[in-house]
Amino acid sequence: MKNLYILGAGGFGHVIKDMAEQSGKFTKICFLDDNSDEAVGKLCDLPKFIDSDSCFFVGLGNNSVRLELINKLICLNCEVITLVHPSSYVSPTVKLGVGCCVLPMAIVNTDSVIKDGCIINCGAVVDHNCIVNEGVHICMNAVIKANNEIASLTKVEACCVVERG
What is the mean pLDDT for each group of 10 consecutive residues in the chain (165 residues)? Predict the structure, then answer.
C-alpha cells in the first residue's frame, strides 16, 4: 500500500479522497494545496513527497490545469493513478489513461478510449467505440452515444446527450 497525495483540496479533491478511502488501498491520503489548512504542503513542495511509497492524483476540476499538473507529475517520474469506483462499469476492452477517475454508477462501454486526465462523473455513460481525449470532464448523467470523439479539454455538461457519430 502506498501514500496517496491529492493535488487540490477543493470539492473535487474531497470526492477523490472519499473514493480513495473507500477503496482501502492506501496507507494514508493527504492533500497538497496552496490555499488549504488541510493540506500537508503546497504544490511547490511536491518534490518533497516523491518517493517509491507515494502515488498522486490531481483532484482539480479545471480541465486545463488538471492536465497540466498530470503532465508535470509524469515528467517528474511520479506514479499517477487512475481511480474507478466499484459501482461503475468499465468494459475490460476499454483503454483508460492515467489520472482518470470513473465515479459511482458511471458506464464506459466496449472498445472506448478514455485518455489521460479525464473525469467520467456520477451516472455518466460513454457508449461503445468512443474516444474521449485528454482532460475531458463528462459531467453527471451526461450520455456520449456510440462512435463519438470528444475533443481535448471539453466539458460535457450534466444531463447533456451527445448524439451518435
Answer: 97 98 97 97 96 97 98 97 98 98 98 98 98 98 98 98 90
* Domain range annotation of the chain: 2-75, 83-162
Per CATH, the number for 83-162 is 2.160.10.10
pLDDT, residue 83, reads: 98
CATH of domain 2-75: 3.40.50.20
Tell me, what's the pLDDT at 164?
86
Separation CA 93–CA 74 (nearest Å):
24
Query: How far apart (Å, rounded) are the C-alpha atoms in residues 155 and 25?
Result: 29
